[in-house]
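Q: My labmate handed me this sequence with no annotations at all. I'd like to see what the chain might look like in three dimensions before we decide whether it's worth expressing. Could you predict it?
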Amino acid sequence: MTLFALHGQDQSQTLASTLRRPLRSWRRTVACFLIAITVATGAFLAQTPQFTARTDVVVIAVTGSTNADTQSDVSIDSAVQILYSDAVLGETARLLDYPGRSSGLLDDLSIDPLINSRLLQLKVSNPDARLAYRAVTMLTERFLSARLQRLTEQNEVSRKELEETELSLQSQLASIGSSGLEGLQRRELAQQLGVELAEAQAAISAIDNLPPSAGFVSRQAVMPTEANRRGRAIFLASALGLALVASSIVAPRHLRKRKQVQQLIEREKVDLHG
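A: Here is what I predict for the chain of 274 residues:
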């Protein structure tokens, strides 16, 4: 009955009393914090320092064609997809013989699009500063080349489609005279076909005179000179959280046991005198 009563008292503790537990034994609380911070610091320092090379690329939003398929390529998402493609990331990893090849370079690469801008920040982190610099530089060059090639191919397809449309419209205009339509209908149809023909010719002219632009480098990569370790804030926050939990569990243990023993002794004395 006595043990059951004591267990019932533990179950009835409030949240406030639980949060005050570490204060019951500040020595154990401080020890918990010191141990947790020491372990976290050791784990943090055990990481291999990383050199980070960075470059910024501006993705051009306006291309040389007004074709909808080409315009859809100007999104930041499509640019990131090109960066992650085998023609860019995979080929860069193979040419540099990057540790882990494509998967290793993917783990070391971070792409940060800036909100409300056409800017992409490319960062490669590696224990080898020269390798990080070469990787981010080659990624940028291959990305711009691959995107320009993609836009050029799309323009070529668009131009071919527009030329076919132009020939079809010219053929329809030439056959209006023998169509058997009345004068007013022929004039209206000729006017409509003429407008469509002018639009097709303007689009062809835009492709010829305004070639697509993939983008440009706004910040050149430089050789990194300082190595850093990742996750400093994460390690510290984890250590503090673990220390708080451990101190809530461990700190009051000896006090609770001593209090229980004292209660049992007092109850035994009462029973003996009774």
